[in-house]
Specification:
136 residues; mainly beta; SH3 type barrels; 2 helices; elongated
Length: 136
Amino acid sequence: MISPRELRIGNLVRCIVHLPIGYNRPSMIVARISEINENSVETNKGIYRYRDIAPIFLTENILINSGGNKVSDKEISFKDKNKIPTSEDFSVVIDSDKFYLNSKDYKDLSVNIESVHQFQNIYYDLKGKEINIILT
């Protein structure tokens, strides 16, 4: 389950699809949130209760495929190419399979980023625009 306070329109999440009795397990699908309600979220795949949505865990491949530039084994940069560095530029530091925000403006702040929707929210807050997440 993800807290409704963490979500915003455009976030990618996993949704549990409950199967008829007799099937071993429910399946999980990836969906994009289109509306946030008091007890549920609407997505491009249907309406789901909060207890039926889960985060998509962040990976190095997702960061790189979504526009990150691998600076080193421990850092992936998100800055606009061919532009003078700005306060919107940031990088994600990789430490023991965990991801942390690294920004000039937030030197003393260590933000652990565990999931795709958290990364989407941070990217939007810092850059003022959406990021095109590529999961594969």
